[in-house]
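Revision sheet: structure tokens.
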Amino acid sequence: MTTTDAIKKSMVDVENILRQYPDLAGVTPFPVNSLAIRLGYKIVYTAPNLSAMESSFSGGVSINDKIIYVNISNSRQRMLFTTAHEIGHVVLHADKIEKTPLYDPSITYDIAGQMDFQRSIAAGGYNEIEHEANAFAGELLMPFRTFKKEYESYKEQLSNDGLLYHLSAKFGTSRQATIYRVDLVTRHGDEI
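Predicted:
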């Protein structure tokens, strides 16, 4: 799937879920906790026991128990993205991950397959469901067309750092996620 196709797919996926909750559409920063609750999920903020290898744990989801786990030691922006990412799994992949073992904060693993994902990256592969959940989270928090319009409106008036700060604050996202979205807009904005 091309990057443009992935962006378009995530736009459709998010539009489909927001049709059910139109009052959430267009709200920035996006109220991910409200959406999770409306989908019937409880959010549990936890500080799991992590080995050095697993220190990148951000969150997980238990489809059976309807719980989204979020690492509370991350920044607020990272926790928002993690929650949006896990909602992506709920919306897009519930049938694929429903039989995953339940998360236990005293055990060092991520039920959404974080360690398998890290191993596949190390081996030069990529886990498609993680990519889809990231694309969904990006679109949920920073809707492509809205983000592009905001970027275009301010790119001439603000310095690069000022623009990144403005966009991060408006959409409630980390600098890293914002830079990634700016890159997508500048490289693929004319195709969307």
